[in-house]
């Protein structure tokens, strides 16, 4: 019997079959990546399509005369007396100013209702003007150039959300108002421009979506991340180092190990229930405060930090420890002088990814009162605040369609923060991680 | 153990600092129907008074009242918003935890409207139509049978021949209760079905329960989310008819058309006059013990029911609240800190 003839140039059938199998597998893999990419593209397109307009806002800019007669009857410029004039009084001042500007520019629009001109202006503008005047009472009696937010529906007209057809059906805006807006824009009194307030301003009520911003939410998230970082880094690293380097292997440490892995998989709402019971009902910490949110998120993040930290420590070869011990270092010295610095990039990467997860978490915050309407900037860890993902959740529930754009805009901001954190994690890993 | 020591000391510091600081802003929680009104008032309150803006949480009437009844003290809420009256059971739970002196404030009325896609058929309903369309079992020839109706024209020949598809609030919403009582049960009574069922079952209470049991064959869909979800469902299913709050409808008149009920178009005026049948009062509840402790609490309550806010020309009415004709009495009660009886 002779062996079958084999040529190095022509592959035999089995090789062909194996090569085909490999080609198929590659195609499957590519297909899987493709599906994931398409899903990502659809998600990003819908979010950016809806949300990018949140970063632009329509403003009216007209000269505003601040009459002493209505803003400071006493004429004393005494703040306490002037505070008696509410935003209603300031709204009238703004409406008069807009009326005068329309007249001065010779704009005539047919079919305007009695309230239509006043309703072009956001309610927020009156509050802004009032704060401005109370901060500087000498403005009373002068004419100032004041930039006021336009009503959300007018703003929607320039973003394609409101059309003449929909305005005819909409009880909150009329086609005549849109005509007026066009006429004002032609005279340069109305313009849409970049809106930094979306990032810095606090939330606003349902009646003024045009003024709603992310300021309080970003600050609240920032405070919580500080708490999470300050608590979970030392606790997580200490736990990982102890379990990996010092603990004897026995049933007790086995139990701990199982529990840590288990905790990492517990749904986050459970930590919210725990937080409500321990931090609010037992420790009497205030509701809606970033300190409680931070503590709850710390509990949630801890196992997710300990596990990668232990993996990073385990990856440091024993020869490093042996060498350190061999030249007379104590075990603690070997850990802190040699093992920990070598494992640091891995630990930090795990830390950043853990923080990013905590930043995007909503469920546990529901139970501790952070899903709330908060307008004052939190001055510290104990003041009420909201968080970025919570703000998204809040806005999707509002009746006014303008909040859809706001919610998507908030998602964009959240995604940018997450992208920065995850990029930092990757860069750290690439630059400092050593392979053995 | 280093880790535990750190954790314990961190907690201790946090607790000590928390206890040392007094709360100076009002905290409110409760009904998602009252939420928009409460935020409008809170916003205006923060702008025009020297107090911080109150913190308003949502979560539903029951959740809010439960939180309200947890006790008295700075880390409990001051006000619970509710889209229904507080129940005796809840008052008892409150009393058990030391919340005894409660002030009840009625802020106005909320209309519940039925709306469909703006480009679809228009509807003129009666409660009877809704009962016949959505009941799980109806009486046919003296027998209780599973609801056979599939189109609105089966229910009432004057309605268009459109598939029955209703998006109704889920059971956790206060709106559901009102819907069952003022629409389904009322329709059951009006059609004479209540008597017929009572005759079959031999028990009035049992008959009412049967009346209010809704069909579970995907023609009546419970919406556990907010009205925004109902709106989205109608957007993707043009045959759907949704149950909304009047305020929500008023903010989306370019997408929805509203149905009349017993010949009356829902509006702030028809609800205030009582002509439109499906409406309910909205409330908030204050802990009297907190009036002395939390700065601005009484000012907030008085501001809420003032003519500038809750009056017929105020911003709340503009948003969709039906102003209470007896607002003056409420204002007096709040000023006098009258307890609920």
From TrEMBL, chain A:
InterPro entries: DUF3333 (IPR024573), MetI-like (IPR000515), MetI-like_sf (IPR035906), Phosphate_PstA (IPR005672)
Signal peptide: none
Superkingdom of the organism of origin: Bacteria
Residue ranges constituting the ABC transmembrane type-1 domain according to the UniProt record: 218-425
Keyword Cell membrane: yes
Membrane topology: Multi-pass membrane protein
Alphabetic keyword roster: Cell membrane, Membrane, Transmembrane, Transmembrane helix, Transport
Protein name: Phosphate transport system permease protein PstA
Annotated organism of origin: Albidovulum sediminicola
From TrEMBL, chain B:
UniProt keyword annotations, A-Z: Signal
Protein name stated in the entry: Substrate-binding domain-containing protein
Boundaries of every PBP domain copy: 16-308
Leader sequence residues: 1-22
InterPro entries the UniProt entry points to: PBP_domain, Phosphate_ABC_transporter
């Amino acid at each position: 019997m002779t062996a079958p003839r084999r040529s190095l140039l022509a592959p035999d059938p089995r090789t062909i079959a194996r090569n085909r199998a490999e080609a198929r597998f590659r195609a499957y893999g590519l297909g899987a990546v493709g599906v994931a990419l398409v899903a990502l593209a659809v998600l990003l397109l819908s979010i950016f399509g809806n949300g990018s307009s949140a970063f632009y806002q329509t403003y009216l800019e007209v000269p505003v005369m601040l009459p002493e007669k209505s803003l400071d009857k006493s004429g004393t410029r005494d703040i306490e007396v002037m505070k008696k004039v509410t935003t209603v009084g300031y709204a009238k001042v703004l409406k008069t100013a807009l009326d005068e500007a329309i007249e001065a520019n010779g704009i005539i629009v047919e079919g305007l209702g009695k309230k239509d001109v006043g309703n072009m202006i956001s309610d927020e503008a009156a509050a802004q003007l009032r704060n401005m005047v109370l901060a500087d009472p000498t403005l009373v009696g002068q004419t100032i150039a004041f930039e006021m937010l336009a009503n959300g529906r007018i703003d929607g007209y320039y973003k394609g959300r409101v059309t003449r057809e929909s305005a005819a059906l909409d009880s909150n805006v009329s086609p005549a108002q849109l005509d007026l807006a066009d006429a004002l824009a032609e005279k340069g009194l109305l313009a849409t421009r970049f809106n930094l307030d979306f990032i810095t301003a606090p939330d606003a009520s349902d009646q003024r979506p045009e003024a709603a911003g992310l300021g309080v939410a970003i600050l609240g998230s920032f405070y919580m991340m500080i708490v999470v970082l300050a608590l979970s880094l030392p606790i997580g690293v200490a736990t990982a180092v102890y379990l990996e380097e010092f603990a004897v292997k026995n049933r007790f440490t086995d139990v701990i190990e199982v529990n840590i892995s288990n905790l990492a998989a517990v749904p986050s709402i459970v930590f919210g229930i725990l937080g409500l019971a321990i931090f609010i009902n037992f420790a009497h910490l205030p509701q809606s405060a970033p300190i409680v949110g931070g503590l709850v998120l710390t509990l949630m993040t801890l196992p997710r930090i300990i596990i990668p930290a232990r993996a990073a420590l385990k990856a440091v070869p024993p020869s490093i420890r042996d060498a350190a011990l061999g030249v007379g270092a104590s075990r603690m010295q070997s850990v802190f002088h040699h093992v920990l610095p070598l494992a640091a990039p891995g630990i930090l990467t795990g830390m950043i990814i853990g923080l990013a997860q905590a930043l995007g978490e909503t469920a546990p915050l529901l139970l501790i009162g952070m899903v709330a309407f908060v307008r004052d900037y939190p001055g510290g860890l104990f003041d009420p605040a909201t968080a970025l993902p919570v703000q998204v959740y809040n806005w999707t529930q509002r009746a006014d369609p303008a909040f859809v754009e706001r919610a998507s805009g908030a998602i964009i901001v959240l995604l940018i923060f997450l992208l920065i954190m995850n990029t930092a994690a990757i860069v750290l890993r690439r630059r400092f991680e050593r392979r053995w | 153990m280093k880790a535990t020591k750190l954790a314990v000391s961190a907690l201790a510091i946090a607790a000590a600092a928390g206890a040392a600081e007094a709360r100076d802003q009002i905290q409110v929680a409760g009904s998602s129907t009252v939420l928009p009104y409460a935020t409008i008032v809170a916003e205006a309150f923060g702008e025009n008074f020297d107090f911080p803006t109150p913190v308003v949480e949502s979560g539903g009437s029951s959740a809010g009242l439960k939180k309200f009844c947890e006790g008295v003290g700075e880390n409990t809420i001051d006000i619970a918003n509710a889209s229904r009256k507080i129940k005796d059971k809840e008052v008892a739970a409150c009393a058990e935890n030391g919340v005894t002196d409660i002030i009840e404030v009625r802020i106005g009325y909320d209309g519940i409207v039925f709306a469909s896609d703006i480009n679809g058929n228009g509807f003129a309903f009666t409660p009877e139509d809704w009962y016949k369309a959505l009941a799980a079992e109806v009486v046919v020839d003296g027998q209780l049978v599973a609801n056979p109706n599939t189109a609105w024209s089966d229910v009432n020949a004057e309605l268009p021949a459109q598939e029955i598809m209703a998006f109704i609030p889920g059971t956790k919403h206060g709106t559901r209760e009102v819907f069952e009582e003022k629409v389904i049960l009322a329709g059951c009574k009006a059609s004479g079905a209540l008597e017929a069922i009572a005759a079959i079952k031999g028990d009035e209470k049992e008959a009412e329960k049967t009346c209010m049991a809704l069909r579970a064959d995907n023609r009546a869909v419970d919406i556990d989310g907010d009205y925004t979800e109902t709106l989205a469902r109608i957007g993707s299913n043009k045959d759907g008819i949704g149950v909304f709050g009047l305020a929500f409808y008023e903010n989306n008149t370019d997408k929805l058309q509203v149905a009349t009920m017993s010949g009356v178009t829902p509006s702030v005026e028809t609800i205030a006059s009582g002509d439109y049948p499906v409406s309910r009062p909205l409330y908030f509840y204050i802990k009297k013990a907190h009036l002395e402790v939390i700065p601005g609490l009484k000012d907030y309550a008085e501001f809420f029911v003032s003519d500038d806010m809750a009056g017929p020309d105020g911003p709340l009415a503009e948003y969709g609240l039906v102003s209470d004709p007896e607002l003056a009495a409420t204002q007096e009660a709040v000023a006098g800190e009258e307890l609920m009886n």
